[in-house]
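Thread title: Can someone regenerate the structure for this chain?

I was given the following input by a collaborator and told the matching structure tokens would be attached. They weren't. Posting the sequence so someone can regenerate them.
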Amino acid sequence: MPRQPDPQLEQRILDAASRLWARGGEKALTMRAVAKASGTTTPTVYERYRDRQDILRALRLKTRQDLFDAVSQSRTLRESVQRYLDFALKNSYSYEVLFDGVGKPPSLHERWPSFTLMRERVADRMRGAPREQTRLMLALWSLMHGTAMLIIRGRFEGALQVQAVHACLDAFDAVMDCAVRSKGLPNSGPRWPTTLILGEGKQSRVGNGKGTRARKPAKSGSGRR
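Best answer:
Regenerated them for you:
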């Protein structure tokens, strides 16, 4: 009888690739190592993926979609953060792969559905256009991702992990409340360049900083008391 196709094979290959990468980076991610770790043969892996970059791309796309599926089930911004962190901690290997070189092509020019979804929700609360909230979303994203990676790399467990998660949630709420009251975040640096676009696929670019001027720091103690 002909051998039946294995419906779980591609998932096993991607799972194995994420574990290998997280443990040893690209040097550990060879096609032979992926085949061995996923319980198949090297030719079988090559039948599905051209090379390790093709595997990494497939892994990024799948992880982004799975993360989006988790975050999109939330009804509030706070719940979005909770689901984001839950996903990162339950899928730590693939999560780490997802964000390796995220600010460089090809990852930069792939869509970031969770980022754009949360930015839309931030924009709704700020009553502005989503792209106008990219800087605020970057601050919030840094908070979430920093917490996730601190827990993963720091191997936080038990009460420490619980406290880190809730500290992130409370800080997220505080940043949003401040932004709503102030109609944006304070800005001590250059203005946001129009050429800095994130999460929008091929339109995304990191900008070159030209044509921006640093904001002057606010004067303290000025005016009559």
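The beta strands are 196-197, 205-206.
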